[in-house]
Specification:
heterotrimer; A mainly alpha (231); B alpha+beta (576); C alpha+beta (250); A: 231 residues; mainly alpha; globular; disordered N terminus; B: 576 residues; Flavocytochrome C3, Chain A, domain 1; Methane Monooxygenase Hydroxylase, Chain G, domain 1; 6-stranded antiparallel β-sheet; 5-stranded parallel β-sheet; 21 strands
Chain lengths: 231, 576, 250
């Protein structure tokens, strides 16, 4: 019988000071989803809700004009939207790629939510890139012609498949944000007990549903479908 | 070079020894069948005794000492027991410092509860998983020393034998990797054996699977003396199961649980009636015999079955969860009833061996120089019956004694034994393995094991009769004969569990004879050893330690006797 | 009970670390109250598969059989759990049994969980005492703190929480819920607290706390009902505070 020396698995080295970058990057990822991206999302939905008025073209145009009148608007956009968006989106893709989902084997609420957070993240990233390109950087320049903003969107929404794409994008972005709020509180240690998480979970759910309703109502309004009583 | 100490066994005693030895400068190699965190010490539930006297009862180390000696029916050597009881409070303090989550009083001090065989609140506890908590605390400290490079673990290794020179001095061990299955010798300046209990010899017991006594038996067959083998503790309250008997801790009674059966349609609290002073907290041997009598002599077992009620339903559910949660959860998970609401059904089950490898009265060394032993595998501390919650303290105390003692021995006896004794031992063990692989008989090792367990449980536990013990010994001899015609169902050379089990079985059979013959010879009743033919303790003839020595020619134990140290507490009748 | 009733098992077997896994069916005699371990013991005693062919016994890890040692974790009917507390009466048949999938298989149901113990070393999961000599009693602790810490100290290192964790894999190197919870335990202790920074530093590096995706499977599968998600949150808070303090240079 062989009597070769038997080597035990070498314990992992614990002498070197571990890099804190992994932790800081992930916290930044988590934070960027809320500030500025989440905050912008709320602002964006609020602005879009201008279409829910008796004179949507005018109100919407005025809102676009106001936003574009802000000083340093492009710098603000780059600093507070595009860079955080690209960071959050690309880092998120990398996070999703490291996952080994098992929701079918462990069909639990939290596990499904985990999986959909990753699926929705991918879809939302695609949607936002497309939406930003089409609405901001191609076709009629909205900053230069705010009065045409409504018409531009209306024309886009006239296509059934584009409207459907919007509804999907809005739903997923609301899910991703609302569940992201839940995760933020859990991972940052704001909700340390099961009871706190349950309560905060309900708050996030209600908020997410409201946000989705607001977004969908605005989108449908471009087609003259009103699910919200216009004043 | 620092002296090298090999410790075999990673339970409380082994870890305690490893901690002390490594701290004092030894290079420690720690061998264990399982990752040490999974050792059988995790199963200890109720607590650990120390006379801290935090309840204003006037408890003292001397009273702890007296209870232990009296509970053990005066068979324990008094010197080490006294030292243990004196050391116990500091051991609790140390465990507390290591972060053991002991239950607390409102003032933030350690809480203590009552246990069997004492009238004092002397048992510190961490819920009802005290053994687990203590083992983890030591496991963590050992992991710290492992990270510092002072301890090296060999987990999933089976101890096969000691490497002895011509004078019987120990220079290392021979062990086999449970996965790769290679056999190797490991030199050491001293060896500490801390391999625990022997439950598997009784088939089903409260012990874990690894508690086979194989290591102790192998050493006994190499010339180590085995002492008081006949003293086997049968715990009064266990849940019978198909695979094992699950312990229901004495702490259930310590917290107010009551034992009863129906008599004339009404609950009968027979322990409280028979033993008004100690009630449900009489020592285990007494409670076990009482239950035995109620069930088999009076025929009052629940529904005619061998079972009695252990009832905690009258206790405050919050207190139950805080102090007994762990064991109530076990009952609920394995039986299905909620013990908060329904009285538990329990029956005595083999639990502990008071006997074990003989060690000296000073430093835990066996008769083989350089070979030490600590914990359940040795015989000191408990005499003829162990008190509840004394095992954890004896394991840690024994380990704390053995570690530094082994180191001191190693520093004073650094001799080069020469490689030939290692080669010889390796060849001897490999020859045993080769015979086992090649065995082409018809006997199934598991069948032999089940028969051994049945014989031992029937004839060598609660009640012992000479004719039946004689019969049992002959039948074990038959089993040894059948062992020679064994066949392995699996002869592969990788993680072959059948192989290891069969190897251990031989050692179990040999050690069983030590127990049976020790019991047969001892014509008296003392502690856990009860013979209806000789119902009284006989100090004149039997206040003696049984020593079993392997007789190579006869391939059988040879018994001799040694006086017991009773220098401090004079003998008195044991009446609870 | 019905005479001759049988229990049917399907076991995923693997003769060695490099061997291909394959399924083998077994029948064992039913007895009331039996668990999966009893069935495996029966197979070991008489290793014959369901076709009546002699085979090798199934290797498995088990020790205490009271769900307190953590050894016998395996995947039973798709769910990782301790085989000792898996009662046959409560399982649908045939009962499928597989080794834990997140650890290297040694043989059959035996896996190598060394990584878990290495990770405990990595995060310094111990109280650094000055020495084992007598230094008097430990720090006082309130009964309430004991009731918070005690459940955490009951972790049996079975690995079930890691088996179900979608983030526990070679890519993330995540230490997993069990280890995070141990960090919380030691950071709660009055002495352990003095070294909380070292543990938090270890958890800020690769495979640390940040890899948790909060799928919450761990807390649902834990056989000891340890509040693992609470621990993850609590450690998350400590990490933030620790990072801010370090950034501010305090």
């Amino acid at each position: 019988m062989a009597t070769a020396t038997h080597e035990l698995p070498a314990p992992e080295s614990s002498s070197t000071t571990p890099s804190r970058n992994a932790f800081l990057l992930r916290r930044l990822h988590s934070l960027s989803g809320i500030i500025p991206l989440g905050a912008f999302l709320i602002e964006h939905f609020a602005s879009n809700a201008a279409v829910l008025s008796r004179h949507p073209a005018h109100a919407y145009g005025a809102q676009v004009k106001f936003l574009n009148s802000l000083p340093f608007v492009l710098a603000l956009e780059i600093a507070f939207i595009y860079i955080p968006l690209l960071f959050h989106g690309l880092y998120g893709l990398w996070i999703a790629s490291e996952s080994t989902p098992n929701a079918r084997r462990m069909p639990l609420l939290g596990n499904w939510a985990y999986l959909w957070q990753r699926i929705s993240g991918v879809i939302v990233l695609a949607f936002i890139l497309w939406h930003t390109w089409t609405a901001r950087f191609s076709g009629i320049s909205v900053p230069d012609h705010p009065e045409l903003a409504f018409a531009k969107m209306q024309a886009q929404m006239a296509h059934g498949w584009i409207l459907a794409w919007f509804l999907i994008g809005i739903t997923f972005v609301c899910y991703h944000f609302a569940y992201g709020l839940f995760l933020f509180a859990a991972k940052w240690g704001i909700t340390v007990t099961a009871r706190a998480r349950r309560r905060w979970g309900w708050a996030c759910l209600i908020f997410g549903v409201f946000l989705a309703y607001a977004g969908i109502a605005s989108a449908l309004a471009f087609r003259g479908i009103l699910i919200y009583p216009v004043r | 070079m620092n002296p090298k100490i090999i410790i075999v066994g990673g339970g409380l005693a082994g870890l305690a020894a490893a901690l002390k030895a490594a701290e004092q400068g030894a290079q420690v190699e720690l061998f264990s069948l399982v990752p040490v965190k999974r050792s059988h010490s995790v199963c200890a539930q109720g607590g650990i005794n120390a006379a801290k006297n935090l309840k204003g009862e006037g408890d003292s180390a001397w009273k702890h000492f007296d209870d232990t000696i009296y509970g053990g029916d005066f068979l324990a050597n008094q010197g080490l027991v006294k030292r243990m009881c004196e050391a116990a409070p500091a051991i609790i303090d140390l465990l507390d410092r290591m972060g053991v989550q002991f239950n607390r009083t409102p003032e933030g001090l350690l809480d203590f509860r009552r246990f069997g065989g004492t009238l004092y609140h002397r048992t510190a506890f961490a819920g009802a998983t005290t053994g687990q908590q203590l083992l983890y605390a030591l496991d963590e400290q050992v992991r710290r020393l492992e990270a510092e490079g002072k301890i090296r673990k060999f987990e999933h290794w089976e101890f096969l034998s000691a490497v002895l020179d011509e004078q019987g001095r120990c220079h290392g061990i021979c062990a086999q990797d449970l996965h790769g299955m290679q056999v190797r010798t490991f030199p050491a300046d001293a060896v500490i054996i801390a391999t625990g209990g022997v439950g598997a010899i009784f088939g089903k017991s409260t012990n874990s699977i690894v508690c086979t006594g194989s290591a102790q038996s192998a050493l006994y067959q190499q010339g180590a003396w085995y002492a008081n083998g006949e003293f086997i503790q049968v715990h009064p309250t266990a849940i019978p199961g198909e695979d094992k008997l699950r312990l229901m801790s004495e702490s259930a009674r310590g917290e107010g649980g009551r034992v009863w059966v129906y008599k004339d349609g009404k609950p009968w609290y027979f322990l409280e009636e028979w033993y008004p002073k100690y009630g449900n907290l009489v020592p285990r041997d007494v409670a076990t015999r009482a239950i035995h009598k109620v069930v088999f002599e009076l025929g009052l077992g629940i529904d005619g079955q061998p079972a009695v009620f252990l009832d905690v339903t009258h206790l405050d559910p919050h207190v139950l969860d805080a102090k007994l949660g762990g064991i109530l959860e076990i009952y609920e998970k394995f039986v299905g009833d909620d013990p908060h609401k329904v009285p538990m059904k329990v029956f005595p089950g083999m639990h502990y061996t008071m006997g074990g490898l003989w060690v000296d009265n000073e430093r835990q060394m066996t008769n083989l120089p350089g070979l030490f032993a600590a914990g359940e595998c040795e015989y000191q501390y408990h005499g003829a019956n162990r008190l509840g919650a004394n095992s954890l303290v004896s394991c840690i105390f024994g380990g704390f004694l053995a570690g530094p003692a082994a180191l001191e021995y190693a520093r004073n006896n650094r001799t080069d034994a020469g490689s030939h004794i290692f080669d010889q031992e390796l060849r001897r063990q490999q020859a045993i393995n080769d015979r086992l692989y090649a065995a082409a008989g018809e006997e199934n090792p598991f069948t032999i094991w089940r028969e051994l367990g049945r014989l031992m449980t029937e004839h060598c536990t609660v009640v012992r009769h000479n004719d039946k013990l004689r019969l049992a010994d002959r039948q074990i001899e038959d089993l040894l004969g059948r062992y020679q015609r064994i066949r392995l169902s699996d002869t592969t050379r990788w993680t072959n569990q059948t192989f290891f089990f069969t190897r251990q079985l031989y050692n179990m059979l040999q050690l069983a004879r030590v127990m049976v013959q020790g019991a047969l010879a001892r014509d008296e009743s003392r502690g856990a050893h009860y013979k209806p033919e000789f119902p009284e303790r006989n100090d004149e003839r039997w206040l003696k330690t049984t020593l079993a020595q392997w007789d190579e020619a006869a391939a059988a134990p040879r018994l001799s006797y040694q006086d017991v140290d009773t220098s401090q507490i004079p003998l008195r009748a044991r009446k609870y | 009970m019905a005479e001759g009733k049988i229990v049917r098992l399907r076991i995923k077997r693997q003769s060695g670390p490099q061997a291909a896994p394959q399924w083998e069916d077994f029948n064992v005699a039913y007895r009331p109250g039996m668990n999966v371990i009893v069935a495996l013991m029966d197979i070991a005693a008489q290793p014959r598969n369901a076709e009546g062919q002699p085979t090798t016994s199934v290797s498995y890890e088990a020790n205490c059989l009271e769900e307190v040692c953590g050894a016998c974790a395996m995947v039973i009917n798709g769910r990782p759990r301790q085989a000792c507390s898996a009662l046959i009466d409560r399982l649908e048949q045939p009962i499928t049994i597989e080794p834990l999938s997140r650890f290297p298989v040694v043989r059959d149901l035996v896996v190598n969980r060394q990584r878990l113990f290495n990770d405990l070393k990595r995060v310094k999961a111990w109280i650094p005492i000055d020495g084992s000599y007598d230094l008097g009693p430990g720090p006082r602790e309130s009964a309430a703190d004991q009731e918070t810490a005690y459940p955490l100290s009951r972790c049996i290192s079975c690995g079930n929480c890691l088996e179900v964790c979608p983030q526990y894999n070679d890519k993330t190197g995540f230490v997993g819920a069990a280890v995070l919870s141990q960090v919380r335990l030691f950071n709660l202790h009055p002495t352990g607290k003095l070294h909380a920074g070292e543990r938090l530093d270890a958890l800020s590096g690769p495979g640390g706390h940040q890899e948790c995706g909060f799928a919450q499977n761990c807390v649902n599968i834990c056989p000891k009902d340890i509040p693992l998600t609470d621990s993850i949150s609590a450690v998350g808070r400590q990490l933030i505070v620790h990072a801010v303090r370090q950034a501010l240079g305090s």
